[in-house]
Amino acid sequence: MDSINARFKLDWPGFTLDVDLALPGHGVTALFGHSGSGKTTLLRCLAGLERPSHGRLEFKGKIWQDDQTWLPTHQRPIGYVFQEASLFTHLNVLGNLNFGLKRSTTAQRVGLDQAIELLGIGHLLDRKPDTLSGGERQRVGIARALAVGPEILLMDEPLAALDLKRKQEILPYLERLHDELAIPVIYVSHSPDEVARLADHIVAMDGGRVVADGPLVETLARLDLPIRLGEDVGVVLDATVGAVDTEWHLARVDFAGGSLWTRDRGVPTGKHVRVRVLARDVSLAVHHPEPSSIQNVLDGTVESMAADDHPGLLLVRVQIGDSQLVARLTRRSAAQLGIAPGLPVSVQIKSVALME
Amino acid sequence: MFLTDGDLQAIWLTVRLAGIVTAILFVLGTPIAWWLARTRSKWKGPIGAVVALPLVLPPSVLGFYLLLAMGPHGPVGQFTAWLGVQPLPFTFWGLVLASVFYSFPFMVQPVQNAFEAIGERPLEVAATLRASPLDTFFTVALPLARPGFLTAGILTFAHTVGEFGVVLMIGGNIPGVTRVASVQIYDHVEALEYMDAHRLAGVMLVFSFLVLLALYAWRPNPKKGS
Amino acid sequence: MKLLKTLLVAGAVFATGLAHAEKITIAAAADLKFAMDEIVSNFRKGNPTDEIEVIYGSSGKFHTQVQQGAPYDLFFSADIGFPRELAKAGLAGSEVKPYAFGRIVLWSQSLDASKLTLDSLTDPKIARIAIANPKHAPYGKRAEEALRSSKLWEKIEPKLVYGENIAHTAQFVQTGNAQVGIIALALAVNPELASKGGYYLIPDNLHAPLEQGFVITKRAEGNALARRFAAYMGDKTTRAVMTRYGFVLPGEVAGK
After folding, report:
1. For an engineered disulfide with A279, which of A72, A233, B206, C138 has Cβ 3.0 to 4.6 Å away?
2. Which of chain A's residues have a Cβ under 8 Å away from the Cβ of B143?
3. Whole-complex ipTM
């Protein structure tokens, strides 16, 4: 009874939402898709901001919506973060934070102080929203949603309205949320990078329908993912920092099937991390290659192959121990190397992104 | 004294009338403005048009209908008779009622615009922060629409002060009861007391200018705020 | 060149002819409303090409407007004082002629006014009494005088409401908002009002005579139609109409 069961059917001129989902009641679930795919609409249905003509929503055993029941938004134990922070301009930061807190009757799982500390906004409490930067505003928006002590946090592209610098400013806070929050988070995004960093579970949407749904690592390793990711095709590996080489400023991350060296970002040994490996950074060799500038070379077996977006390219999934990597090759090199399922290969990895 | 006692009495009466009418319209106009700003009902057009009617109707039309309606044979007159209270024509409260009609759009339209300018988002935010719709109205919509209320209040007050035709039609020109400043000026002119007319008219001119000055000075910069 | 000159002259003659194509505007006190309509209609029977426009209103207002150059050719005032002032200021195109004496009556729609007297006004059942504004309406001034000489003014002043002119005052009574009004006899005998209520003639020894007079304005000094119409006011038919409408004519005894 820990899951969130949602079934919505909504007909608008030019748009139809038709979903039937069971979302995990813990961790971060990314609603992922291009704009117009219906991910924000789905989130709004969960919050009760849209009222679909037909729908049933059960949150951890409690009915929020069915043919007889309709729980209005203000009675749902949710926290909601909008794309633009949408702070109340007539209140200062503390007034914004207190607004929901004063009205909330739900248990204080994340108290106001904790939210302020978590988002690092203690020095902003007396300020008016229009004196804050975009990033600060959004951090206040997130803290405000957390301060009501929600049982679920709904986030609608909280970074989309921010430039790269502001995104970098907020992402660490979101990663802390991921690690420290006990409540489920539904996170709408169209950015594969954000999804890879933050999500445990992914729901891919297209044209108002769910096209893929599953745990992040497995789902990203699928070659038949029906949404085009282009340069962002790649996998995420759960790993642990195994060793730090202080002389060369490198860190070794161990995952089920092998180890990779990456730049040391000061993450202590033993810490659980996430590693993202993009398909374009992975190349294959049939013989063990000569020593080269590429440090990370692993042994694996070709598991399956699939067409890529471009007719000259091919995606190849390689099994390495219990993990999988995806490589992008040209069709010609695949043919010349005789790449086929079952073939043992050397996997060269040019670049690895370490995410806390 | 610069102004006659009659003038001062008329000014005090005018200020009292405008103040009471403005207060009543805040209470009465706000829910209607809210409804007009948010509804998708097919009645929005007709109701909005009725609210705007006094903008285009000559005061004499309004005054004539009000005189008939409040008279002993009219619906309002029958109602006051049923209540056992004094008929409304020639009374201060009759003027109040007439002015409420006459100044209605000056309250409703600025407030409606202010509510429309708030948009859907802050109300949605309030709902996700556990605020019921009524709670949201008082703690989010009203504070955010404050500039609109300021404009509406000033316009309503000023417009009621400037009212003449309706007052003349239903007021009966009774000193201290229905003889407001505009009628007092008219009487001065009719009686060829041009000096008295000049003085009171000058006061009204300065007042009107100050009101409009305040309105333009206080109006917040529309580019500000997010 | 010669042709152009001929055309210009012809045009000028034509234009002057038009200017003489007679049209006048009369400003008349509101109490004349019904009588004047009939007089003008009679006059036009004999002069079908002439255009006469009549505007009714308060004498005081017309007086102010004529001072400011309003386009009125004749001014019929309910109080002869106004045209006399115009004449004194050099704004008249003729001498001031008295045309009638006005009388005031009690009139009501809900009560039988023919059975009323001024004393009845103290009756508590009468809550509102309409009179024209004494400050600038001649009939209002006479009403006040009548009430004062009957020692009633103080007693009934709280009940008084003031009409802008005598027609407006009648309207207060007609709509039932005032039970009784003091209005011009000329209005009360008009069929439209007479069908709705009777009247009580207030004795004219209670107030100063309400001498009414008219004048041709300065702008119409040379206007033949204005002069003809002024002369027509002395016509036998016209005098009959005026008498029928309750005006007492100059040189006649108030026979009523």
Report:
1. A233
2. 90
3. 0.85
